[in-house]
Amino acid sequence: MKHFNKEMAAAMALYVLVLLASQWALLYLGEANAWLRTVIVLLPMIPVALFCWTVVRDMRRLDEMYLRIQFEALGFAFAASAMLTFTYGFLETVGAPHVPWLWVWPVMGLMWMIGLRIAKRRYQ
């Protein structure tokens, strides 16, 4: 799990760096070239793809107990993220400030971490 956590942390750090660099580039690029702006805005998806690849690859390496813990954590994350995003979506229809879709993935990640804590505690 330590190797997995290091790879996830590296992918997340790379994501933050690429995201900040792409946002900075967009500020200075202006409205000049729509094609170039599209490429720049999609650059953070490269570390996201690395993160996804790391998750899938490392889950294949888990033994049955850790796989069960991950499965329960992901089930919790799926349900909790759906509940939170739907709830806030309904609140937006009655005047709550709009939250960009970019926040869905961090919410899912947070729910996954909470789910891992719950599932690990259950099997201790």
Notes on the protein architecture:
There is one protein chain. This protein is mainly α and 124 residues long. It has 2 domains: 1-61; 63-124, no CATH class. Helices cover 81% and strands 0% of the residues. The protein is built from 5 helices and no strands. The longest helix is centred in the middle third of the chain and has 29 residues, at 64-92. It is flat. The chain starts with a helix and ends with a helix.
Share of helix, binned: over 70%
Shape: flat
Q: Briefly note the structural class of the backbone.
A: mainly alpha
- Topology order in helix (H) and strand (E) letters: HHHHH
Mean pLDDT across all residues, rounded? 91
Uncertain residue ranges: none
Number of helices: 5
CA-CA gap between termini: 16 Å
Salient structural properties:
124 residues, mainly alpha
Layout of strands and helices, then pairs:
Blueprint: H1 2-29, H2 34-42, H3 45-60, H4 64-92, H5 104-122
Helix pairs in contact: 1-2, 1-3, 4-5
Quick overview of this protein structure:
With 124 residues, the chain is an all-alpha fold. 81% of the residues lie in helices and 0% in strands.
